[in-house]
Structure formats: structure tokens, C-alpha cells
Write a structure and sequence with these properties.
462 residues, alpha/beta, Spore Coat Polysaccharide Biosynthesis Protein SpsA, Chain A, Rossmann fold, 2 domains, seven-stranded mixed beta sheet, 38% helix, elongated
Length: 462
């Protein structure tokens, strides 16, 4: 385990070397990234004399703010766990083991060191009051119970850090980080730390203006869409009736050894698990893989692993032969979908089954497809031809969810929305029972999706 310590510094000539000494004294393998934010008091001259091999120094051409410096440091970290360390002496590096323990144990994605639960120097009442107000705002906005969002001491798993899209340049980055973490529903722990708060005479830099900047970032992160694909997955997770409807359609075709390509956050996977079957849940996204590991942590029949279906060695490392592959809302995200189908064919055991669900009707392609990084939507004959060409027999091929197609046309083509409406999703999910009965009774000539049930032929056509 390697630790990366990011130290933003601005005019800390009296403390920076002592901070470095304390950080280096922590008995954990580490790299130290120092980002000087245009210091004018001699700090840069001291940093140029630092020669340790595990220290990297980045110099901003001018003063850009704490947030900008932290972001620059994050860009170059290589450790497994990342910690932010201020360049003053308010925080104690010898408490790193406390800060990172829950991450090492696999219980947390991020850990905050809270100044209000541990030993601390008595400091400014108005700073304390401002912190309480910001914590209250965060807890209301994100339905949580955080006690110290403005703490410097935050520790992250590296793959979690890579999912953040940070933009704040000043002290507002503390609120932006907090907003994005809770928006992504990550596992955040707090642990008590010691705190030796400075006075303004001793060099404290945060001001009353930063309260309003932090409040701005909390509100902005709460109501903006950070990642359309991720946001869509979490909204679809709430569509219990719709997800069960999809599951009921694939259930009759499940074998005993099942591979799901692009499992995401287990919207369908959670219905699959049963005591008489074995599953491999896969994704290319590290955050989703960790989510899956936590969701199925105690189930020995569920294997979680990364898988890129375009890779020539995509079958390497599979724990067993696969008789069923599920590919639900994945193929449209792959540029070379024919190669994906070819590799799916290679992965399946003889006479194995492929259950495929893709967006239907290129005429529906619109703003939502663009935001979701869809390369295409499929027409019935086009999909059938591609599947057959790669060595499958198409047992069933039909349109699914005609009401969703009408909603998609309204939102993606006419209104040109960039995200799915939560209210519309809620209303639609309430209609699924009636919709499913209609579609089981009548053959509908269009739909939001196409569903294909296929069987692998003995040899692939060329």
C-alpha cells in the first residue's frame, strides 16, 4: 500500500519544512506532492533546496487558490490512498494511520478527519459557527450527518478520486469534494483527529467570503448533473417495477453459469442472484466494480471482475465456462459492436444463450443518446443481421416498452433534454404493471428497446 500526500502551500516559509519532516516521519511508504501557489515570502526558495527522492514539487506561475493547487496535485498522484495535508501546523501527520484505517479495512471509500470530535485547540467562535452552518446545509442538501466538511484531512481511495470532476479554485473545493462524494453515494467515514487551529496573526488565510463560496458549491453540486451516465444508472435504480419487468423477460433463458457484461450498479444483477446459479458480474468502470464488490461481498457464487469485451484476451481469468451472457444496454456504447458480438460468441459455451437488450429505432436518436454516449440505436433487421453474422441463431427478437419510446421521442427529440426527468421516471414506473400486461397480450410494432434471445451456433459464419 502506497500513500500519496498532496500539500498545497502558499506563503508558509515558517512551517513548510517542519510539516515535511513530520510527514516523512510517518512510517508508511509514501510520495509527497507539494504544489506551491505562487508564494512570495521565500517558501519557493526553501522548496528548491528539498532533495528527497519521494518528493515532487510543482510551482504555479501565479496565485490561483487552494482548490487549483489541490487539483494539480491530484493529477499526478500514483498512490493507492491519497491524503490532503495543509502546509501549516494545524494538523498532525502522525494521525495518518487513524485516517486511512477504514479504507485499508475496505469499509470506506473516503475518510474525513473531524476536528469537532477529537482533541483540539479552542479557536474562533465565528469560524466554529460558520462550520456548523455549512455542515447543516450539507446535511440537509445531501441527507447525511457530516460533522466537519471543511476539514483539510480527507483520505481517498485512488479509484474514487479519479471519479471526481473538480473545478473550484479556492477554499470552495472542500464543499465541492463533499458534494460530489455524497452525490455519488460513496461510503464516507469520519474519525476524530487533533487540531491546533491558527490565528490570523499566525497565518490563517480563510475568510468570511469563503463561507459563501463553500455554500455556493454545496448547492451547485446538489442540483447539477455531474455524469449523465452515472446519474441515469442511479435514477434507473429507483425503477423497481421496470427493472423487475426486464428480469422477468430474461429469467426463462438463464442457465447455471451466467456472465453479465456491463453490470453497472446492479440494477438488474440484484434480481439474478439465486442459490443454484453462479454469476460473473463485470464492468470496465472501477467505481462500479467496487460498488458491486460491496453489494455482493458475502456471496461466494458471485464473482466480480473487470472485463473489456473488445479485448482479444477478454475470456482470460473467467472462473468457469459460461452458458448464458447478459448484455443489457451495453452494445450501443461500443463503437465496434460487431467485434463485441464476435467475442461474446467466443466466450459462450457451445449452445450457450445470449440475452441482448439495446436501444431501438434510429429515428429516436437524440440529445439523451448523445449525452449517454450512444453510438447508435438499432433497427430490427439491422440487429438481426449483425447477430446472425457472428454465429448466433436468433430465437426471439421483439420490441419492448412502447410507452418509453413515446417519452424518449418527446424528451430527446422534441425537448432536447440532457437528463432523464425524475418525475417522469417515477410516473412511468407506476405504469409498468399495466404496460407489461399490454405488451404480453399484443405484438407492438415499436418500442424503446429491442430484446434479442439468441443461441450460439457451433461455428461462426465468416
Amino acid at each position: 500500500m502506497k500513500l500519496s500526500v498532496v500539500i498545497p502551500v502558499y506563503n508558509e516559509v515558517n512551517t513548510i519544512l517542519e510539516v515535511l519532516r513530520r510527514v516523512q516521519a510517518v512510517p508508511i511508504p509514501k510520495e509527497i506532492i507539494i504544489v506551491d501557489d505562487g508564494s512570495t515570502d521565500g517558501t519557493r526558495q526553501l522548496l528548491r533546496e528539498v532533495k528527497e527522492n519521494n518528493i515532487r514539487i510543482i510551482l504555479n506561475q501565479r496565485n490561483r487558490g487552494k482548490g487549483f493547487s489541490i487539483r494539480r496535485g491530484f493529477e499526478v498522484v500514483t498512490g493507492d490512498i491519497i491524503v490532503i495535508q495543509d502546509a501549516d501546523l494545524e494538523y498532525y501527520p502522525d494521525e495518518y494511520p487513524i485516517l486511512i484505517q477504514k479504507i485499508i479495512e475496505g469499509k470506506a471509500d473516503v475518510v474525513y478527519g473531524t476536528r469537532f470530535l477529537g482533541a483540539r485547540r479552542v479557536f474562533h467562535f465565528y469560524h466554529y459557527l460558520a462550520n456548523k452552518c455549512l455542515n447543516l446545509a450539507a446535511n440537509i442538501l445531501y441527507d447525511t450527518n457530516l460533522s466537519d466538511l471543511m476539514t483539510c484531512y480527507k483520505a481517498f481511495r485512488s479509484n474514487v478520486l479519479k471519479t471526481l470532476h473538480l473545478r473550484a479554485n479556492g477554499f470552495g473545493i472542500e464543499a465541492e469534494i463533499t458534494g460530489q462524494l455524497f452525490k455519488r453515494r460513496l461510503r464516507v467515514y469520519e474519525v476524530p483527529i487533533s487540531y491546533d487551529g491558527r490565528t490570523y496573526d499566525e497565518g490563517k488565510k480563510i475568510t468570511w467570503r469563503d463561507f459563501f463560496r463553500a455554500l455556493y458549491w454545496l448547492i451547485r453540486c446538489r442540483f447539477e448533473t455531474l455524469d449523465v451516465g452515472e446519474d441515469t444508472l442511479f435514477r434507473m435504480k429507483l425503477m423497481e417495477n421496470n427493472n423487475r419487468w426486464i428480469f422477468e423477460q430474461l429469467k426463462p433463458y438463464l442457465g447455471d453459469h451466467i456472465l453479465e457484461i456491463g453490470s453497472g450498479i446492479a440494477n438488474i444483477s440484484r434480481f439474478l442472484v439465486s442459490p443454484d446459479k453462479h454469476f460473473i458480474l463485470t464492468d470496465t468502470n472501477g467505481y462500479y466494480l467496487e460498488y458491486l464488490r460491496q453489494a455482493f461481498v458475502g456471496n461466494p457464487r458471485v464473482h466480480i471482475m473487470p472485463l473489456n469485451i473488445l479485448s482479444a484476451d477478454c475470456t482470460d481469468g473467467l472462473p468457469f465456462k459460461v452458458d448464458t451472457i447478459l448484455c443489457i444496454n451495453v452494445l450501443e456504447h461500443i463503437m465496434d459492436d460487431e467485434l463485441a458480438l464476435e467475442n461474446i460468441h467466443k466466450t459462450l459455451d457451445e449452445n450457450g444463450r445470449l440475452f441482448l437488450l439495446v436501444p431501438a429505432l434510429q429515428a429516436l436518436f437524440g440529445s439523451l443518446d448523445e449525452k449517454l454516449n450512444h453510438f447508435r440505436r438499432y433497427n430490427r433487421h439491422e440487429l438481426s443481421a449483425k447477430i446472425r453474422a457472428k454465429g448466433f441463431t436468433v430465437n426471439k427478437l421483439y420490441y419492448h416498452n412502447f410507452l418509453g419510446a413515446l417519452g424518449w421521442y418527446l424528451n430527446a427529440r422534441l425537448l432536447k433534454r440532457k437528463t432523464m426527468s425524475s418525475m417522469q421516471i417515477h410516473i412511468f414506473d407506476k405504469c409498468v404493471f399495466v404496460l407489461s400486461k399490454l405488451e404480453s397480450a399484443f405484438s407492438i410494432p415499436f418500442g424503446l428497446s429491442l430484446i434479442a434471445v439468441c443461441t450460439k451456433n457451433k461455428s461462426m459464419r465468416t
